[in-house]
Amino acid sequence: MGKIYKILGKFKGGAIAFSGGRDSLALSLIAKEVFGKDHLCITIKYPYTHRWTVDNAKEMAKRFLLNHKVVELPIPYELRENQPLRCYWCKKKMFQTIKKYLKEDWAVFEGSTKGEEDREGLRAAWEERVISPFLLAEIGESGIKKILKERGVEKIPSETCLLTRLPTWSKVNLELLRRIESLEDFVRQAGIKKVRARYHNKLIRIEVENKDMGKLFRMRKEVSKYAKNLGFNFVTIDLDGYKKSQNNSFLCSGD
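Request: output the structure for the sequence above.
Response:
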């Protein structure tokens, strides 16, 4: 584990791409230990960023006394449609923006881990000369869990951008994304931490983990009413439970 401290120690400070999720939080906590006050965790808020992601990032930053900034960006021109390379263009614009906040002898860092080398978002990081300390130190999922456990962090639910809820090549409709977000928040308020509402034309397909299937089924009438009030004609529960998006899960750091 000492290798990651050596990697960060080559710089006076750094800006960290901070989603508030497990990997970026682990990296930010180590960066704070190495750099002290000379760190800046930056959360990029696109119109398709789930509000839960931003709220969670703010909460984690406050809890661990991280220097934190939320920067809002418009939808990249390349993402007017939900194209397969969405993660590449999203990360590309994100890293270019974060670089604007660098101070002298600082670097930009991101939290990709061992086993994630084939992601398109990571290609964007390499092109923008963003450093991936966990990859360089060959730290994988078990190492991240250890880092967080040693610092008293419980399991953090994963979240991804709302574009993962849309079919590939569909036109990005912000009003639709807000409705999907609202439905997921409604289900989440019932204590179901991981929920995905996948959109298929007039049908919305809700995925939760198998352990939460019973809870979702018991509240199915309330969920159906809420979804239909949002304008979704058909509401279904995926009996296979939560799963990563099959159309392009290899592209993004999530599902």
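The two ends are 28 Å apart (CA to CA).
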